Sequence to fold (351 residues):
Amino acid sequence: MNKTAKIKLNWPLLGNDHILEYFSRNLASGKVAQSYIFAGPDDLGKATIANYFAFSLLCKSTGMAFSPCGKCESCRRHGTMSNKTDQGDLSSVHTDYYVVKRETDKKNVSIEQVRQLIHVLNLSSFSNGYKVGILRHADSLSEEAANALLKTLEEPKPKTVLILVSTDLDRLPATVISRSQVLHFRPVQNEVIYKHLIEQYQLPRTEAKNIARLSLGRPALAIKFAMDKKFNTTYSKRTELLLSFWQSDLITRWQLLDELLPAKLAGQEAVKSARRILETWSGLMRDMLLLHLGQPDLVQHQSVLSSLERLKSRISATQVAGFFEIIGQAEKYLRANVSPRLVLENVAAYN
Fold:
């Protein structure tokens, strides 16, 4: 095939056309790296594209489209892509495909998990083709796990492909990054998400516009807001509770934390919930700053715009700036294993 040729990829990625452009050129010319890092915020489609790329390599009839055909033996083994790829774990149904994810309530991907990944990739291919490994949450590799992985990257076996999915590239060892092809997934323009919600999900224009802003450029999150009523309701309740902090005394704020972070939550589940709270809090304060700058049309949380307007006289731009510093410290404390409840109490005490 002509090395300058390109192919049209029918992969489910909204925005981030540079990613499909990259694979279009490289697959057309037969260039497949042995290690990739898919880097960027959550909900941009990194895991989904990792799966499509993997099964495009494994498909026996992919042809010029380089998309799983759904009919060959390999594709039949993993079933329908649209039903399973978002789950990110099809290892049990395809011997040449293996996924590693951080275990529930664990902080790191362990060395034992990485050793098993390396073992699987070193086995002979079931169909004399590619073997593909996907490592989710790669930025949470333990130091020992990262070192074990590095040895494999230094001496890769032919026709093996490893895809590391990461939300924080800076937390990956430089030695791992230097031996991988890094692809940066970026937030998608609001207009692109807005049109997608109208055309594919038939949302009313006002609702589609508000959700597109609320998602901050993350298509998968926008779709979740649009289609998952429980998720949407939970987020709205969290937003209202966080807004009420500015009208409450310290005791009431701590009581509100009981609703936001129930005592039954523990371990990494509590950490994850605390991070969601901090993200929402930060978004609301960003909106408050935009109001101080006279930019109401850019506010993320349009559904509570009137509440934000009422609070603007109570929270100065200087206070907002200080709040961002507190949020930054809170995120560091969570990474250092400080109790999520204590972290949020510290934020709640800010005036």
User: Anything to note?
Assistant: The domain at 17-184 is CATH 3.40.50.300 (Rossmann fold). The chain has three domains: 17-184, 189-227, 229-348.
